[in-house]
Design goal:
two-stranded antiparallel sheet, globular, mainly alpha
């Protein structure tokens, strides 16, 4: 998607920029110096037992709610919820969950699915089961 197409998508669907910014904040805001490895606040929040992962889960739900409001298909919404729930459950495991939080990036995957739906022209088509 070119920058011009992206800006048109943002004007047409105002929930997309918020979802992309939130996904970047949660999963890719910071970079380890000297590497291309990026991480966000999700693994940092995960250091707070239970509460941190739950806060991160709630923030990730915003992307899914935006996708639902924009008319994303139900199957894609279920995949998004599966990604986020899996990250939340794995994040609850002490030490291992904290390490995996650095590598699992469910919010970026969900934002990517949202953009793929937009690129395919499937946003905005409200279905009876999404009302």
């Amino acid at each position: 998607m070119t920058p011009i197409e992206a800006s048109e998508a943002f004007r047409e669907h105002p929930g997309i920029p918020r979802s992309l910014k939130l996904a970047r904040l949660l999963d890719a805001k910071y970079r380890f110096p000297g590497t291309n490895f990026r991480f966000g606040i999700d693994p940092l929040l995960g250091l707070l037992p239970v509460i941190g992962d739950t806060i991160s889960f709630g923030m990730g739900l915003v992307i899914i709610f935006d996708a639902r409001r924009l008319g994303v298909r139900r199957l894609i919404l279920l995949r998004m919820l599966f990604n986020l729930t899996g990250d939340w459950i794995i994040g609850m495991v002490p030490v291992v969950g904290n390490l995996l939080d650095f590598f699992m990036k469910p919010n970026r995957a969900n934002a990517r699915m949202l953009m793929e739906e937009h690129a395919a022209g499937r946003l905005g088509r409200r279905r009876w089961w999404l009302r």
